[in-house]
Amino acid sequence: MRFSNNSKINTMVHDKLKLGWNYRKGKKHRILIAPNNRRVAIPSSPSCRNSFDAFLRDVRRIEAL
Known about the structure:
The protein is α+β, with helices and mostly antiparallel strands. The protein has one domain (7-64): Metal Transport, Frataxin, Chain A, CATH 3.30.920. The chain has helices at residues 7-18, 51-64; strands at 22-25, 30-33, 39-41. The chain has a three-stranded antiparallel sheet with strand order 1-2-3, with helices on one face. It starts with 6 loop residues before the first helix and ends with a helix.
């Protein structure tokens, strides 16, 4: 399944799903759900050059909680 047009984000989401994370479909974006039930939106067609870095920062922040 393809979650994002950005290949780095797509690979990272697949890796997280293998580690026990879940996802669900939102109104505009799919949502990645951590094992501690924290959520982050998956950008489907990011236009910003640093979108992967921002997504990675958000995921790491959720993992730390």
